[in-house]
Design brief:
Oligomer: single chain
Helix content: 25-40%
CATH architecture: 2-Layer Sandwich
Number of domains: 1
Strand content: 15-25%
CATH topology: Beta Polymerase, domain 2
Order of helices and strands: EHEHEEEEEHHH
Mean pLDDT: 94
Number of helices: 5
Largest sheet: 5 strands, mixed
Shape: globular
Radius of gyration: 15 Å
Length: 141
């Protein structure tokens, strides 16, 4: 299931990203890493497993934060850059972006991209502004 910036692109005007954030069932992560290691260089981080290929600039980030697991049940097929993929529901994408922006341990430039994605979503779906915490709503309004 796709989440992150490319999932935002499934709902609003696309912005190019080299990052493909995905969520998989955590009980399958070991099997996925075993298969991936023959093709990708793997880096493990506290809340992600990142896959890199020398043949591509695309960065695949598997979200291992357990909060994202609940998103899988609500995903639906959507077009992302011309491919049909399972994408997190819009409200779940927004919730993930809120978590990402609110994480002060992340780089400021990355958090600003998350804020821009939040703004893109609420500009296209103004009824979702009520989901935003007050601190973010003030930045968006």
């Amino acid at each position: 299931m796709v989440t992150g910036g490319l999932a935002v692109n499934a709902y609003v005007e696309p912005v190019v990203s080299l990052d493909l954030h995905i969520v998989v069932a955590l009980d399958q992560l070991g099997k996925i890493k075993e298969i991936a290691k023959s093709v990708f260089r793997i880096e493990e981080h506290p809340y992600s497993v990142n896959l890199f290929s020398e043949d591509s600039e695309l960065r695949i980030q598997i979200q291992t934060d357990p909060r994202y697991q609940k998103f899988i049940a609500n995903c639906t097929p959507r077009k992302v850059l011309g491919y049909t993929m399972n994408v997190a529901a819009l409200k779940d994408v927004l919730e993930g972006k809120i978590w990402a922006f609110s994480d002060e341990s992340r780089r400021k430039s990355t958090r600003q991209k998350d804020l821009a994605d939040i703004i893109r979503i609420v500009e296209s779906y103004p009824d979702l502004i009520d989901i935003l915490p007050d601190s973010i709503r003030k930045l968006v309004a």
